[in-house]
Amino acid sequence: MVVDAPDDIVVSANQNEKDEVAIINPDQLDNDAEHENITLATDFETMKEIVLPPLPEEPKIVEDVIDTWTVENWRHLPKKEHGPIFQAGGYPCIPDDWSCCVQFGLVMWNVNDPSLLQHHTAHHRFTKEESDWGFTRFLELRRMFQQPWEGSNRTLVENESVNITAYVRVVEDETGVLWHNMNNYDSKKETGFVGLKNQGATCYLNSLLQSLYFTNAFRKAVYEIPTADDESIANSAYALQRLFYQLQISNAAVGTNELTKSFGWDTRHIFEQQDVQELSRKLIERMEERMKGTAAQDALPRMLSGKVKTYVSCINVDYESSRMEDFWDIQLNVQGIQTLQDSFKDYIQQETLDGDNKYWAGDEFKYQDAHKGVIFQSFPEVLHLHLKRFEYDIQRDAMMKINDRFEFPETLDLEPYLEKDADRSEPWTYKLHGVLIHSGDLNAGHYYAFLKPNKDGWFYKFDDDKVTKATMREVFEDAFGGEYKTSIIQPRSAMQRKQPPMRQMNAYMLVYIRESRLDSVLTPVTKEDTPQHLQKRLDEEAALREARKREREEQHLYLPVKVVTPDTFSCHSTTDLTNFDADPSSDNAAPRLYRMKKQATIEDLVKTVAEDLNQDPRRVRLWIMVNRQNKTTRPDQPIMDLKPTIEETFSRSAGTSRDYSLRVWTEIAEEVDAQGEAIWPTYQGNANGVVVKNDLILLFLKYFDIEKQTLRGIGHLYVSKEKKVEELVPILSKKMGWGDKLPAGEQLHMWEEIKPSMIETLKPKQSLKAAELQDGDIICFQKLPDKKSSGELLGKMSRLGDKSSEEVVKKWDHFDDAKEFYDFLLHKRDIRFDPHPRCEKEGLQPFILTISSKINYDQLAERVGEHLQVDQTHLRFFTANATTGAPKMPIRRALNMTVAQLLNPNNYQHNLQTKSDSLYYEVLDMSLAELDMKKNVKVTWLSEGITKAETYDVLVNKQGHIEDLIQGLTKKAQLQDEREGGRIRVYEIHNHRIFRELTSNYPVLSINDYADLIAERIPEEEADADERDFIKCFHFQADPSRAHGIPFKFLLVAGETFAETKKRLEKRTGVKGKAFEKIKFAVIKRYQKPDYLTDERILYDEGGNVEDDVTLGLDHVDRTRSTRNGGEMFLK
Q1: Helices and strands of the chain, counted as H and E runs
Q2: Which end of the chain is less congested by CB atoms within 10 angstroms, N or C?
């Protein structure tokens, strides 16, 4: 113990003053506990109970030590003073390389009056890094020396003397992580297992995956799915195999990105907590589908599926109706139930059907009293139990979490819940394998799991990327939920004493394994069980990652060199000499990439390139490529001195490449002398080191093939600046293999490619010097046939036969000269076309077209129509949402609108919301012109009361009426027309209430674009009824302002009691059984509370012959409301 000088606060600290002191702020400064007024500091045992209260973790106590230090001459003490050394738990006072978990308290008390005292308590894990831990603001100095203590005329410190008693409790660290700060914690080293990384809000997924992973039989079954021929991340089975194998071999937490991508999840799904039960079911269903036809096809049903019988058994006659169903998990009630066994009893509890709810037992027995219920026929080897911790609260009109205490055993006997004739050849005893926990409330929470990987081993806590040993208290007592023990949580106020705080962490899913099958379910997974192709692929990826890691570590020693060769230039089909961003592994036109040490010389580089090109190094010369002001990259001059290093050469070239690489062009000598030395047309080096530069310039050549509509590199040539452009014709003709002279009627046309957007015609009589041509410039040339032969060319192209050649003659694809083709290259776009989700034509697939962004709407439609082989006038296009990828509003046809304007309008906000490379298309049954004469009306068709609703988009002539809408609906929904099936009524609803009924002659144009229209057959009994005998009905929940569902009209009968009316309402709505019984009916009048109806009342007297302000309300829960997680489970 240490006390500070009188001008400071009192702290406990380590004797090493240089160490940083970790400070704990006490919860309170005032001594407000009632018993402190009567407890004496000399009563050490009683004081120990106060100073060392029970810990929430309930660790085993190793040793309690009490030591008192009498401090004298306080004001004369040095800055720090150390008390006498004492030992506790066998540990020395100064920690070295170990950890020690200690609960401790300090009591400062008057040496003459032990009733005057001040104490504080804390606990800490002492380590070498955190060996100095104590209190700050223990007590104010003026209260120690100047102010009389409460209820006394003494001060705490009298005559410069005071006693300090240390209460030290050393506790056992059973799990190795008690009060651990988790810094530098290694899950693999401490437990042998690794966790899963949380992508954002995927902790629920992590806990489920760990549970499935440690169900070894499930893991083995997943490994048996054949995926060798489909090693794609889009394959969820393969992604799950990869994840499981990485959990086996990895030394660090594993990511789930690949698996969620295989689910089709995007960022929105990653940050949405899904329903765990639904996710579990869909994931297991997906794996079961992939196992069909394989050796493991029965593994999952045998392991995870049981059988349950649903029955209705008559009480007074011998009649029973039952059906057997498979189940993959069981949902059990928690609210109002104490234990898991009680919840099973509640699950199989019988319901008696009697009175008005009797069971129809057929023509022989008619209506009978009966028992209705479920009973289990068998349970699976691995039983998944989902506890209903989240329930809808009708009073709060919201989903709520149930934190009630719910106990579950380590050993569970399920035999009492089996049918009498069920197979009992082996015990139905189950052992707890996993407990999945939710901590928090409905809107914000965290998921983790306690799992028992081995039959006789520990439970471990899997909390995302951390894995730790768990105590049995954590697995059971803490997971039961309910109130905290009052001895652990000390209430501060009267309200808290009456209402103990509830645990926010509790079990929501349990995994039990049948005891007799434990060995087979938890059988170890060996390397032989893992697919060989999976091991090989992941080993290769690991080796590649290691190589990349080494490459990154050594990156400062190397400089990438990108080399343009004659071969890459001949494959290049666009502007400039190459695309430096292209990948050499997939593009033959990409420059060759060499990873060279910075200290290697240019001579080393030349040798490397020459060897790669299978050339004599003496015949290879490299030219430095530089960025010109017009943003092109061209050779500037050859590298004559081969001795400088690559780094020096890169620095001298100004290092202008944005990808930090040396860019060079490779020239191969066409002539050599007798000694094999290269003879260069220009920049020829002599023995004396002098470089000879003549008037020859280096020009690169490209040829535009008008017949094939292609552009390609031909090579290079040296030519004098003084020559005229027309003098190049025989040189080019010979280079192309056409002879020394072009055939009669043909001529060459040449352009200079200055930059992609600037292609200039070269005049024949102009000299190259006057045309300002220099080293590295590009000349493009083509044959120009006369007009007569041009027509023959198009005819020849149309007869080539293949589809690509037929497309080439279309006006949107054919270019008469190279300049037009360059313009196409500048504006071309690859656009993805997806069929609109509502497009009804079958067989439509996504496709990608390369088109010019300068074409207009009609040309785009023609191009797409040609690809789909449909009439272009029957196509409609939609832009795509940039965030969701879903189609937006249709694009209006405008002749002056180009594709560029269509995809990138002059609206910044619009550009952010629209994809620039994607469109949706719809193949219409009519032309766009005809469509413009029609109005799209959305109608909901009711076919079975109000329980089955189908929505249709119906196109109706804008000049039409409701009767035309009905005709369109019957055709679209394939219904009988009104003459055969009966009259159809159409009404408009607003806020889930009937707004108005639309007559047959009501004009379509008057229908609001956003109106909700409902259509239904008029029941026979309502066909000729007086309109005044109807009442409008709607659904609401608790309050009429919270309307939901589809409203309807209902015919009232004079003198009919509501008991009879309800039977007709059940038939009218199509809602049956328990769902109908839960509905409460009320007469709703404006500005009045709902008047709930009883069976003896007569609704006709309440609502018949009245105005529209009287309606019938059906009060029941809105089942269409979103679940607690907000989003529907999405699994591709």
Answers
A1: 33, 53
A2: C
The CATH architecture to which 1024-1132 belongs is Roll (3.10)
Catalytic residue among 386, 438, 446, 1035: 446
Higher pLDDT, 1103 or 213: 213
- What percent of the chain shows pLDDT beyond 90? 36
Q: Report the run of H or E that residue 241 belongs to, with start and end.
A: helix 236-249
The CATH number for 187-301, chosen from 1.20.1560.10, 3.90.70.10, 3.10.20.340, 3.40.50.720, is 3.90.70.10
Mean pLDDT confidence for 611-635: 93
User: If phi over 0 gives left and psi between -120 and 50 gives alpha, with beta otherwise, what is residue 759?
Assistant: beta
Name the catalytic one among 100, 203, 780, 1033: 203
CATH class of the domain whose range is 555-670: alpha beta
Tell if the pTM clears 0.70, that is, is over it. no
The domain spans of the chain are 2-171, 187-301, 306-515, 555-670, 698-809, 825-931, 1024-1132
Per-residue tokens: 44: 């050490």
Task: Name the fold adopted by 698-809.
Answer: Ubiquitin-like (UB roll) (3.10.20)
pLDDT tens per residue across span 660-690? 899 999 999 999 998 888 999 998 877 666 7
36-64 pLDDT, tens per residue? 456 888 888 888 888 888 888 888 888 88
Please tell me the distance from the alpha carbon of residue 160 to that of residue 601, in angstroms, as a whole number: 81
Is residue 665 a contact partner of residue 700, using CB atoms and an 8 Å limit? no
Instruction: Take residue 952 and report the two structure tokens written for it.
Output: 């249709």
The CATH architecture to which 825-931 belongs is Roll (3.10)
CA distance 567 to 530: 45
Distances (CA, A) of 862 to 807, 868, 876, 920, 1024: 11, 10, 12, 15, 54
Mean pLDDT of 329-337: 91
| DSSP H or E stretch at residue 597 | strand 592-597
Cα angle: 408, vertex 411, 417; to 5 degrees: 80
Q: What value does the mean pLDDT take over residues 1069-1079? A: 84
**Residue 25's pLDDT is what?**
44
Burial of 1052 (0-12, 13-18, 19+ CB in 10 A): buried
Interval 847-853 mean pLDDT = 92
* CATH of the domain spanning 2-171: 2.60.210.10
Per residue in 511-522, pLDDT (tens digit) is 999 999 999 999
**Fold of domain 306-515:** Cathepsin B; Chain A (3.90.70)
Same CATH topology for 555-670 and 825-931? yes
C-alpha distances in angstroms, 806 versus 844, 853, 869?
22, 21, 13
